Automatic annotation (TrEMBL):
NCBIfam families: Rid family detoxifying hydrolase. This is Uncharacterized protein. Transmembrane segments: none annotated. Gene3D superfamilies: RutC-like. It comes from Penicillium solitum. GO terms for molecular function: deaminase activity.
Length: 128
């Protein structure tokens, strides 16, 4: 019997290549794939500020977690990918409205490029 189950929801962006929105593993953990600021209703990247994109990404992650039986309060690890180091502070301003103490463990790395030319991508792991 498989110890992983795919999470599928129309309320978050549909995968555009070979990946799952998220996985439930051993009925204990939820792992989301990296999310970029795609509006689930249009399937397109949103316009607006970096903060608008981070807000939508974290809303989409919250939706995937809920579909998997978890929520943002149970997140224990977050990985953030940014293209521009000057976006670190604005990203944190939004991030801190979604998470509270004790904050999840977190890694933030700066990369040369991200899918579809966006500037931020976020993934997380949570307990169920």
């Amino acid at each position: 019997m498989s110890t992983k189950k795919e999470i599928v929801t129309s309320e978050a962006p549909a995968p555009v290549v070979a990946y799952s929105q998220g996985l439930i593993v051993q009925d204990k953990f939820v792992y989301t794939s990296g999310q970029i600021a795609i509006d689930p209703s249009t399937g397109k990247l949103i316009n607006g500020s970096l903060q608008d994109r981070v807000n939508l990404i974290l809303q989409n992650i919250s939706t995937i977690l809920k579909k998997g039986g978890s929520d943002l309060t149970k997140v224990f690890k977050v990985n953030i990918f940014l293209v521009n180091p000057v976006d670190f502070a604005p990203m944190n301003q939004v991030y801190e409205t979604f998470f509270s103490k004790p904050f999840p463990a977190r890694t933030c790395v700066f990369v040369k490029a991200l899918p579809l030319g966006t500037d931020v991508e976020i993934e997380c792991s949570a307990e169920i």
